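To whoever is on call:

I kicked off a structure prediction for a single chain this morning and the downstream step that reads the tokens threw a length-mismatch warning. I double-checked the sequence; it's 475 residues and nothing unusual in it as far as I can see. Pasting both halves so you can look.
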Amino acid sequence: MDNKLKKVKEPTLALALIPFISMIAFLTIGIIFLGIDPQIPLVGGTIIASIIGIKLGHSWESLEKAIISSIGSVMQACLILLIIGSLIGIWVAGGIVPGMIYYGLQIFTPKFFLIIVVILCSIVSLSTGSSWSTAGTIGVAAMGVGAGLGIPPAMTAGAIISGAIFGDKMSPLSDSTNLASGIAGADLFDHIRHMVYTTGPAYILTLIIFFFLGMSYQSGQVDTVVINDVLQTLNANFYISPLLLIAPAFVILMVLFKIPAIPGMIGGTFVGIMFGFVQGLSIKEVLVSLHYGFEITTQNELVNTLLNRGGLDSMLWAISLVLCALSFGGVIEKTGSLEKIISVITDKFKSRGSIVLSSILMCIGMNAMAADQYIAIVVPGKMYKPIYKRLKLKPKNLSRVLEDAGTVTSPLIPWTTCGAFYAATLGVDAFSYAPYTFLALFTPLISIFYGFTGITMEEYDENEISKEKEVQLNA
């Protein structure tokens, strides 16, 4: 029976909170105590939310339609993720990523070690779209170099993570970047350009601070054995040339010329295919790299860890997480639980600045409670999307906030997946490196400042609002 023919009740605040509390409990138990992935706990939260929905008078058919509608809202982002998986695989196979790493490693100098680490990790993370791979390879090598220079491990770790999350945040190849823009309904490249206003100043401040910190540790000598071994391994297995830098230059041009994400990423993939043939790959090897990613076995484990990645298949985990999270989002939206909580928020926070502040705090809170940056993007994004729209703020404002708080603060919390990974990989606990992870500390503060002052907070004008209403009426 259709909901219109049944008496559907509005949830009380206590009832509306149950799905969120259940989801957080399931995620906490699953991720922190059992060490499992978040997908099944999210399904558990969706089941609880659905039971409450049925109790309120909703039919299963209406809840199912809400789930499908919610998932449909991020299908473009999912398609982009699949294309990016293929792009990464062929960029590694085509020598583009190895080339960027090769040239990046050669800028190490003792006097400016910390600032070079930030820049190098930024380059590698931008080229791969992965902060974890960057920290697990270049970061591990940098920790050894830093120890040889007498630099405190926590300081080196802060430089590594600052650079890694900058690249991950600003790369069109990053799953979190695509997820944030998709959830908010923003164009991918509009989202990246808009993040420059917050991430740019934070990055400059980070470089300035590490420059002065590094001046105190300029008497050490770099052990170049590890770096030279990586360079020799890359040179032995790939054709390395400055021409490889055409590919990242192409991506930068895509952003500048506002080319839509899907055709732009497909174009970048074709560039990678061309370089794949330059590397001597067969058609079958190119297709395998596009689908399953690149695999190489060398005597250098750092090289193996960094380059064995990519492929369409590599993005299926992230997409499954999005599907599970959006299923939960669709149900809580349909049952009115989301609207109930939003109404409480808007009662307390009414101005633009207070809304931005509360959304940033919500992202950080979700990181702390759900222990996963993806959840810290999806749930607040779903909750605040109608609020930002009500304030006539363009979607890229919300997508930027989701990254400014959801993505960058995850490494600062020890029990999140990011915090645990960096601690295990770099050998420094989150509480120790957090004071030196300047990019993650400055970015949310700059975002809050913009929220209260209105700087860079782009709003819809009347013509844009009228066009959007026409599109909705004709849909």
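Update from on-call: the warning came from a stale cache, not from the record. Cleared it. Sanity check on the structure: The two ends are 25 Å apart (CA to CA).
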